Amino acid sequence: MTDTIMVTDSSQVIARNFLRDPYLEWAANENVNILEGYAIDLNQVETAAWARLDARGAIVHLTGRGDFMSMFVLDIPTGGKTSPQRHLYEELIYVLRGYGSTKIEIDGTVETFEWGANSLFALPLNVTYQHFNASGTQPARLISVNNLPAVMNMFYDDAFIFENNAVFPGRAGKENYFRGAGEMCETQKGRFMWETNFVPDITEFELKAWDRRGAASSNMRFCLGDGIMHAHTSEMPVGTYKKGHRHGPDFHVLTVKGNGYSLFWHEGDADYIRIDWRPGVVLAPVDQVFHQHFNTSSTPARYLATAMGSLRYPFTAQKRQVFLGVDQSVSSGGCQIEYEAQDIRIHQLFLDELAKNGVTSRMEKYPVSGRT
Fold first, then answer.
1. Are 311 and 229 in contact (CB under 8 A)?
2. Distance (Å, whole) CA 197 – CA 199
3. What is the pTM of this model?
4. Which fold has domain 27-172?
5. Rounded alpha-carbon distances, angstroms, from residue 18 to 3, 14, 15, 22, 59
6. Coil, helix or strand for 40?
7. Tens of pLDDT along 12-62?
């Protein structure tokens, strides 16, 4: 007989197997810390023994993560290693600190590459892999951004996801893709994408100018592991900020260099939610919330953004429209608020924050609303 529970605010009796979320059930059964919030400092996350990985870990559920994405924090002890893993969900790894190597087995071929702080790499779909900490004195902390929620909620079968022998050799890319090599392609006029599996240091990767998104802004988009997960990195020069914009949920925005803050607001809101950030802080804008990023440090600020739906395989019609219209004004059906149309308070707040840090604004040549 099916177990039942009473609904506290009505007389209905419903089945326990009702409106289930298999991913959240899986996460709870992993017996590690689960953190939630608009933004989380990944440097401060407390990990616990994670039996599945034979290492320490935690799960991060940001408010704006949507239905597709999750984030894991993984600590590998000094001289330690994870147990071999294999799974039918995609995973991008960012190295928050430490150095070591990863061994990947793809259809009988073994590939090993070394990583360090600020490395970014893809684990191609359903390969067998294992991480190793090369330091004898310092633990390594890896950040996994993955689409396990989408896969688990679609198939809700652990064995299918974690014990599947299917191979996808095309996901491995070219022979030198795990050595930092790649190929540049122009996806749209003036917009570029770097195809690879491994970026040695995301903070030093050469970006291309993208002024339409903000004052002297630069950007690079990535195709990693020929997958359906997106990644891009953007940089704001000293004394500048991005234009406000909005899109659907699931973009995880992780600061990798510099300090500053972001503002969140829905159309019609009287005030803002403010999030201060530094390297290691991750935030995820909720569905259709306007958000805007401000560099208040004396050095350029750079972030890494990841999401479900890549430039090659956008996965949803909504994500396809985001990629086509992210730098188009809302007045013409796009996602972006131009400087001259932004709230008059925004620019003055930025100037006040720069003054606290002794930084000079470089926004003078832009038609900014609220300039005095």
1. no
2. 7
3. 0.94
4. Jelly Rolls (2.60.120)
5. 11, 7, 6, 11, 24
6. strand
7. 555 678 999 999 999 999 999 999 999 999 999 999 999 999 999 999 999
